[in-house]
Write a structure and sequence with these properties.
Strand content: under 5%
CATH architecture: Orthogonal Bundle
Order of helices and strands: HHHHHHHH
Largest sheet: none
Helix content: over 70%
CATH superfamily: MetI-like
CATH topology: MetI-like fold
Length: 218
């Protein structure tokens, strides 16, 4: 028989774990946005070594599971004298993973900007960094924003994989209480509800931001 009264006893701990999940998502997304922008700029550069380095990064990260990357970050790096706690290892692994996908999103947005605008900026004497900062990237961001929002939502759900290195985020906390109380359905269904709530709220704010950007473009 189902007994959700067990969940209510531990619900404050689940909320605390949800907050940790949000922190992990935000920091990983920020790192992914930074790495993705760097990789995208490297891919469209005229420097062959930079292009090759960006291609290698995307090839390795997109071709291996994020779960393996988390395990390598937490368990393998200590063999080289680099000891990271579970939270830092999770942020780095998830952020590096997201950066490889965000790079392609950025690149698509950058390439969507008409070349005529770049040529016009060059005729005005703007330098390449100025053109990217004032002409290309603002437009690329507007084009890329829906895909970046989807990536942020995916990041929130992928954060559950940090449970494999015992980070006490929502999934790990739910697993622990479910196993202790033999109430797997109750705890897992509540965990699913909390994930659904967080993704719904995140989607609401992202859609609101997207509408504002569309209005400002007009």
């Amino acid at each position: 028989m189902l007994d959700f009264s067990l969940v209510t006893q531990f619900f404050p701990f689940l909320l605390e774990a949800s907050w940790l999940t949000l922190e992990l998502t935000v920091l990983s997304t920020i790192l992914g946005l930074i790495l993705g922008l760097i990789a995208a700029l490297m891919k469209i550069s005229n420097s062959k070594p930079l292009m090759w380095l960006a291609d290698f990064y995307l090839w390795v990260i997109r071709g291996t599971p994020v779960l393996v990357q988390i395990l390598l970050m937490y368990f393998a790096l200590p063999q080289f004298g680099i000891q990271l706690d579970a939270f830092v290892a999770s942020v780095l692994a998830l952020g590096i993973n997201a950066g490889a996908y965000i790079a392609e999103i950025y690149r698509g947005g950058i390439l969507s900007v008409p070349k005529g605008q770049v040529e016009a900026a060059e005729s005005l004497g703007m330098t390449y960094p100025t053109i990217m900062r004032r002409v290309v990237l603002p437009q690329a961001l507007r084009v890329s924003f829906p895909a970046l929002g989807n990536q942020a939502i995916s990041m929130l759900k992928d954060s559950s994989m940090a449970s494999v290195i015992t980070l006490p985020e929502l999934m790990m906390t739910s697993q622990r209480f479910a196993a202790t109380n033999y109430a797997f359905f109750e705890f897992y269904i509540v965990a699913a509800g909390l994930y659904l709530l967080m993704t719904t709220i995140l989607s609401f704010f992202l859609n609101k931001m997207e509408r504002r950007m569309s209005q400002s473009e007009r």
